Amino acid sequence: MPKLGKLQKLSTDELVALFIDVSLEMKRADDWLENGAYNRAYDKLDKVMAELQVRSGDGRYALLPLLTHPNIQVRLNAAVATLTLSAVATEAMQGIASLGYCSQAFSAKRMLRAIEEGTWKPT
């Protein structure tokens, strides 16, 4: 995995691959209830998303194919990252929320409710 300080040197495709890897780290940490590992992975993911966002034309568009990824954490993270870019992201988040049996479904429900109530505005 590349150093996070060198993100600007990575191609968009490399950042998408890193986004997937970090999302999988988050899922593993969530499954094993490792809050510290989850939080560290979240911080990495936040940096990857920020780097994609500043790319010409908003590199987060490259995450849209991940809305159908087989891993639920990858799908959730991609939906959160692309909510302002596409209605498909909202649909993906609603699909995750409807699962109702995992922490990702709970997170999706919470985010959708916050958007509806106006207490959270995706950027």
TrEMBL record:
InterPro entries in the cross-refs: ARM-type_fold, DUF2019, PI3K_accessory_sf
Domain DUF2019 stretches: 13-115
Annotated protein name in UniProt: DUF2019 domain-containing protein
Species in which this protein is naturally found: Azorhizobium caulinodans (strain ATCC 43989 / DSM 5975 / JCM 20966 / LMG 6465 / NBRC 14845 / NCIMB 13405 / ORS 571)
